[in-house]
Design a protein that fits this description.
The structure is a single chain. The chain is built from 17 helices and 21 strands. By secondary structure, it is α+β, with helices and mostly antiparallel strands. The longest helix is centred in the N-terminal third of the chain and has 20 residues. It is globular, with a radius of gyration of 25 Å. The protein binds iron/sulfur cluster. Iron/sulfur cluster (SF4) binds next to loops.
Length: 609
């Protein structure tokens, strides 16, 4: 073979492919990779590290081969990929134990690698670890909840955060204690491996799975099966970037499936469909590529699955992503970008190859979709499908619970429910299986804990990411500002529709600002000599049937001015909406931004006069 310029691009690509395939096969057998020079390809100069033999076998080899392919093609792995290549993050136990014994925090890329074990050193925001759990479907027993509270009390800051993936985080863990927390969680039956870094995050399900009067299917067993599949397949830890999976069984509370890399959404087929050879029944539609921080929702693939197929199909999607995701640029290393580059047909053909057979398709219109979401379905008392039982949605202000509250909630769940607590992606929780006769007692107990099952139309949909008190990426104190905004609006406005306000501290968009009716993305702005906290404000976002990416209406609004700006937006909406059924998002979507600014300014002047 030669580097002769007479080679066409096509021939050179063919040789690249041949080389990469040969290297992948050699890597599996533990043989050194062939150099580009041997293949006579241009750009043969590589660093010695890049051409190191890929002596990795077994399930870890899949990610290694994907890296080999990048290198063989002349690409440059990003620093996180290099770190993973040099040290297997799943084999760090001794290192973590030695570090904890020395009372030291990790440095450099070890900070990243420790996240594979759910342990985040979050300096400089806090010179401490944050521990992120894995609670499939957001379901946690009262016993576990109590135990988690004990760990947060003993080793953390005495509180826990409910996250937007229906999960918990313990914060302020000192340098000597990360493995005490890890071990304590394992003792409670909570396995957290892979809850951070380039992994499949907490698998979510409908929070009311199994108890919802309107659901099509109980998705909790699916979320649990997916969770255990991940824990027991090492190749599921070889991703180029993080990955989200959700199961929506219908019902009152949305798990925001369309914001996930893989979203499974339940549908019903009333009559058999001969063309797709599908008998009547409940199926899951496969949606791919959601990442609202990059302004994209998961899109329907046309594929429709029996529930028992979902886990293996999801695993096939993940394996294709492991092989094909970008390992050179972290910003492009999500499934969306493979789908954008390949198109859905090519991607799904690879998935089917991996899965081992063709998957049935059916037009969306031939399916009866899930019933409507109740925007207040996660708050207050709701009858379950089991006669005489209720679930009670508890408001958790900006997702923060003290250990005393956690103990109290566990006690309530044991005494009046079935000992189960369900966390939601709305940063709150449900206590399920409460008999009618005990509802009043539960409400009273919640009040005694400083909690409530009632919320205003502002507080029910208030979501805030960690913010700069605990996250180094944050440009502002999102949780505090969320509370201030809610206090202000509750004191000045009467809203007749629930409104979702999402505050997110950086472009990672943990609080999904683009899908809020009102979404705030933190920024910094100069005021005199000082740089102060501010927000870009977006409007009109939505999810599910109301799927919409919010539009930015104001930039760099100082945090202390944001409550009044939002107030005048809501007043302008109330003054100019078509009728009382029109929601804020419906209203804003039918106007151009300039027109909205004019209406909101006029509302301001009216209020001032
Ligand atoms: Fe941190 Fe950014 Fe996520 Fe907020 S959105 S928790 S600032 S990474």
């Amino acid at each position: 073979m030669t580097n002769d310029p007479a080679f066409s691009d096509e021939q050179r690509h063919y040789l690249e492919g041949l080389l990469s395939g040969a290297n992948a096969a050699r890597a599996l057998r533990g043989l050194p990779t062939l150099s580009r020079a041997m293949a006579g390809l241009a750009g043969a100069a590589q660093t010695p590290v890049a051409l190191t033999a890929s002596a990795v076998s077994g399930p870890d080899a899949m990610a290694r081969q994907a890296q080999d392919k990048v290198i063989a093609g002349g690409g440059k792995l990003c620093k996180e990929e290099k770190a993973k290549r040099e040290k297997n993050a799943l084999d760090l136990w001794d290192e973590m134990a030695d570090r904890a014994a020395a009372g030291a925090f990790p440095k450099g890329t070890d900070v990243f690698l420790m996240k594979y074990h759910g342990l985040f050193h979050v300096a400089p925001a806090q010179n401490a670890y944050m521990c992120r759990l894995r609670l499939p479907g957001g379901v946690v027993s009262a016993h576990q909840f109590r135990g988690i509270a004990d760990l947060a009390e003993k080793y953390g800051g005495g509180y826990a955060h409910v996250t937007t993936r229906a999960n918990l985080q313990i914060r302020e863990i000192g340098p000597g204690d990360p493995l005490h927390v890890y071990d304590g969680l394992v003792d409670l039956g909570v396995i957290i491996r892979g809850s951070g870094a380039d992994n499949i995050r907490n698998v979510t399900a409908s929070p009311t799975a199994g108890i919802d009067r309107g659901e099509l299917i109980d998705t909790l067993p699916l979320a649990k099966a997916m969770h255990h599949y991940i824990l027991n397949h090492r190749e599921m830890y070889g991703l180029p970037r993080k990955f989200n999976i959700a199961f929506d069984g219908g019902g009152a509370v949305s798990p925001l499936a369309d914001t996930n890399d893989i979203g499974f959404t339940a549908v019903r087929i009333d009559a058999s469909d001969a063309s797709a050879a599908l008998p009547a029944g409940v199926y899951m539609r496969l949606e791919l590529g959601g990442i609202t921080g990059h302004k994209d929702f998961a899109r329907d693939t046309g594929v429709i699955l029996r529930p028992d197929q979902c886990v293996k199909v999801a695993a096939a999607v993940v394996r294709v992503f492991v092989r094909t995701g970008d390992r050179t640029d972290r910003n492009k290393a999500r499934l969306k970008y493979v789908l954008d580059a390949w198109g859905f047909d090519k991607f799904m053909a690879e998935v089917e190859k991996e899965y081992g057979s063709q998957l049935p398709r059916l037009e969306l219109e031939k399916c009866e979709s899930r019933g409507p979401v109740d925007p207040m379905g996660h708050i207050g008392v709701h009858p379950q499908k089991q006669d005489g039982l209720n679930y009670i949605g508890v408001v958790v202000p900006v997702g923060r619970l003290t250990c005393r509250q956690m103990h109290g909630l566990a006690h309530i769940a044991d005494e009046f429910g079935s000992g189960v607590i369900r966390l939601t992606v709305w940063q709150n929780l449900l206590i399920s299986d409460v008999p009618d006769a005990h509802v009043a007692a539960v409400k009273g107990r919640l009040k005694a804990l400083g909690l409530d099952d009632a919320a205003t139309n502002v507080r029910a949909g208030l979501v805030a990411c960690t913010g700069n008190t605990g996250c180094k990426f944050a440009a502002s104190d999102t949780k505090t500002h969320a509370g201030v905004i809610a206090d202000y609006l509750d004191a000045t406005l009467q809203l007749d529709h629930p409104i979702n306000i999402h505050l997110t501290g950086c472009h990672h968009s943990c609080a999904q600002h683009y899908i809020g009716d009102i979404g705030l993305l933190a920024s910094k702005v100069a005021r005199g000599e000082e740089m102060i906290e501010a927000y870009h404000i977006h409007i009109g976002g939505g999810y599910g049937r109301e799927q919409h990416i919010g539009r930015e209406i104001y930039r760099d609004v100082c945090a202390d001015e944001a409550p009044a700006v939002i107030e005048r937006m809501l007043v302008g909406y109330q003054q100019h909406r078509s009728d009382e059924r029109e929601t804020f998002s419906m209203f804003t979507r039918r106007h151009e931004l300039d027109e909205l600014r004019r209406l909101f300014d006029a509302a301001d002047q009216l209020a001032a006069s």
